[in-house]
Structures are given as structure tokens and as C-alpha cells.
């Protein structure tokens, strides 16, 4: 991911093996990471059980907020692909009980079809 993409907040894919090691203490026994994206230090992690949003705070990054969203709490989602003049892609996830969706922008080359499959496989059960 280029520095420009990081500065404007575009997400990029991350190494799942490294991420599995980083998240090993919070994953349950049969939970595996299926897909993940990073924006600067923050991460959106899609497991076979839930969506984990990691918000790293402070200069040293020692303060961390982990938000867990069980897939059964996801009401709907949308994914917008990039166009000719608008390069960015966007995902919105509506959580039951929340008025506004969670939003994340992605780089144009992000595997949005794969991301849709992950979400749909768990939400549409």
C-alpha cells in the first residue's frame, strides 16, 4: 500500500499468517481468519465466526480497542466498486440496532468479490 493510500484511508489486504499469530490470544479454538484489511494501524478482520475491528490508539499503539461483531448481528451490506474517475471502492455494513452503517474504503485492486463471498457465506446462513 502506498503512503498516499494510507493517508487517505484506503484499506489493503494483510498477511493472514502474521495476523493469525497477532490475534492468536483472542481467537477461539475453531476460529480461523478468512480475510483481513488494514488502514494505517487499524484492521478489519473477517473470521469464520465474526468480524473484528481493531482500533489501535495512541502514539505507541499500546492502547487497542477490539470490537467484535457476530455475523448474526449484520443486517445487510453493500460493496461499491471503483469507476473510471473514482478509483476507490467502498463497503458498508449495517449492524442491527445501529442507525448508521460501518464504512470502509478499499483500494481498487482489493478482492471485493472474495470479500462479498465471505460476508454472504456467514450472513445468509
Structural class: alpha+beta
In whole angstroms, the N-to-C terminal distance is 34 Å
Domain module tally: 1
Structural shape: globular
Give the CATH H-level superfamily.
Answer: Bacterial Pleckstrin homology domain
Tell me the CATH topology: PH-domain like
Question: Class, according to the CATH hierarchy?
Answer: Mainly Beta
The tally of helices reads: 3
Number of strands: 8
Tell me the helix content.
Answer: 10-25%
Largest sheet, described in full? 8 strands, mixed
Structure, explained:
- With 125 residues, the protein is of the alpha+beta class.
- The protein has an eight-stranded mixed β-sheet, sandwiched between helices.
- The longest helix is centred in the last third of the chain and has 12 residues, at 112-123.
- A hairpin with an 8-residue loop joins strand 6 (74-80) and strand 7 (89-95).
- 20% of the residues lie in helices and 42% in strands.
- It has one domain: Bacterial Pleckstrin homology domain (PH-domain like, Roll).
- The protein is built from three helices and eight strands, in the order αβαβββββββα.
Topology:
Blueprint: H1 3-8, E1 10-13, H2 16-22, E2 33-39, E3 42-47, E4 50-57, E5 63-70, E6 74-80, E7 89-95, E8 102-106, H3 112-123
Amino acid at each position: 500500500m502506498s503512503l498516499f493510500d494510507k493517508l487517505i484511508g484506503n484499506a489493503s489486504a494483510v498477511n493472514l499468517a502474521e495476523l493469525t499469530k497477532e490475534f492468536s490470544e483472542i481467537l477461539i479454538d475453531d476460529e480461523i481468519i478468512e480475510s483481513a484489511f488494514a488502514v494505517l494501524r487499524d484492521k478489519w478482520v473477517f473470521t469464520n465466526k465474526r468480524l473484528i475491528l481493531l482500533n489501535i490508539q495512541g502514539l505507541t499503539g499500546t492502547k487497542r480497542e477490539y470490537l467484535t461483531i457476530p455475523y448474526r448481528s449484520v443486517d445487510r451490506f453493500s460493496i461499491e466498486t471503483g469507476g473510471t474517475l473514482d478509483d476507490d471502492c467502498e463497503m458498508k455494513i449495517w449492524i442491527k440496532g445501529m442507525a448508521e452503517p460501518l464504512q470502509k474504503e478499499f483500494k481498487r485492486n482489493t478482492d471485493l468479490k472474495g470479500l462479498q463471498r465471505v460476508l454472504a457465506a456467514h450472513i445468509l446462513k
